[in-house]
Specification:
Distance between the termini: 29 Å
Number of strands: 15
Shape: globular
Strand order of the largest sheet: 6-5-4-3-7-10-12-13-14-15
Low-confidence stretches: 1-5
Largest sheet: 10 strands, mixed
Order of helices and strands: EEHEEEEHEEEHEEEEEHE
Number of helices: 4
Structural class: alpha/beta
Strand content: 25-35%
């Protein structure tokens, strides 16, 4: 049994790993989309794009057309994404001034942004920023521009906090990044869509029932 196996009603199920979450989200990205990946789990999506699909990844620090993480020994120290992770450049890639990068975002030229979050509300409200004293990106950063500028916003996050508190809630208690922007949520337990009626279940991990998912979700789930 994997160390991250979850027990619900004394019956084990296996939550998705972060790589598995990224692979699942990547499978839903359409061919030809321009996509921004937020700091954290979303950056892993670039490593899992299907081979028969072209996805153009954009980073707010000025990259357009970057690819997966470099192989060991092939790192270019000057090529990093907004999360300070090393990346590769694909054929046809471009390096932009940061102002041009944000013009793309604010001009609504991105088909999709995938962000991490602390909380998402049943109506799609997003809370994903915090003030940090470590080396992580502080405060709201570019997330507010991305949340409002991208044509679609998906969220990738663990379904609960380390203390077991739900991250999917009726209304956010953390500071908001944007109102009503999230359309789809990928967690280690499920995929859910945000609809006018509330959170609708798209997919569950193997071994978990909708009733068990509801027990770790603080907003009603439509099946």
């Amino acid at each position: 049994m994997r160390e991250d196996t979850l027990r619900v009603d004394a019956r084990p199920c296996q939550p998705r790993s972060r790589e598995e979450m990224a692979r699942r989200a990547a499978a839903d990205i359409a061919d030809g989309w321009y996509v921004n990946l937020g700091i954290g789990i979303p950056t892993l999506v670039a490593n899992h794009v299907p081979a028969d699909r072209e996805v153009i990844f954009q980073s707010e620090n000025g990259l357009l057309g970057f690819g997966p993480a470099p192989a060991e020994g092939m790192i270019d120290p000057y090529l990093i994404n907004a999360g300070k992770q090393h990346v590769t450049l694909l054929k046809g890639a471009a390096l932009l001034h940061q102002a041009d990068s944000f013009a793309m975002i604010r001009g609504r030229h991105l088909d999709l942004c995938v962000l991490g979050a602390f909380q998402v509300a049943a109506n799609g409200d997003l809370a994903n920023w915090a003030t940090s004293s470590n080396d992580a990106a502080p405060a709201v950063g570019g997330a507010m521009d991305l949340a409002l500028g991208a044509r679609r916003v998906w969220v990738m996050m663990e379904h609960t906090t380390r203390d077991g508190e739900p991250r999917l809630v009726e209304s956010c208690t953390y500071p908001l990044t944007a109102l009503g922007v999230v359309s789809r949520i990928y967690t280690n337990l499920a995929v859910l869509d945000v609809t006018p009626q509330g959170l609708r279940l798209v997919e569950l991990v193997e071994g978990l029932t909708p009733a068990e998912l509801q027990k770790v979700t603080a907003a009603p789930i439509l099946v």
